[in-house]
Every structure is written in C-alpha cells, then in structure tokens.
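Batch job 17 of 40 flagged for manual review because the log was empty.
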Amino acid sequence: MWADHDVIAHTAGTKRLRHPIVGDLSLDYLVLAVEGDPDQTLTIYTPEPASPSAEALALLTGWTGTSASLPQAPDETHDPAA
C-alpha cells in the first residue's frame, strides 16, 4: 500500500507542543540525515529568539541543574529564633 504513495519527508518546519508546566511551545525544527545510515536522523528544535517559547524553555533549562546549584526556598516551618 505505501509503495503506491509518494510520501514526502518533512525536513524542516514548525512543531507546536504543549508542555504540562510551561504550556504551549512553538519550535522550529530541522531534520539532518546521518551520512551513511539512512535510518538515522538528528532533529534540532529551536524557539524564535525572545519569544514566549524561548522564555519557557529558559525556565525549564534552569531546572536542569543539580539540587546543590538550585536556589533553595526558605524553610517556613523552621523558626530560627527557636
């Protein structure tokens, strides 16, 4: 059945995603073929600079550090005067 259809691979475009924390993202993508292995590709997603999607990804990027490098919220249950 597929042999009868002329299927076109999309190698560039825009992908819209919904992230459960930061919401809607609009990312441009580019698919690169791996020379010598047609079954492998590399897909690169990038947001438009200074867009809401770029800001949302920057927020998520800030969460990728180790717990030692993340700012700690004050412990409101601990009374330093006690």
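Reviewer: the log was empty due to a logging misconfiguration, but the result itself is present. Helices lie at 52-61. Unflagging and moving on to job 18.
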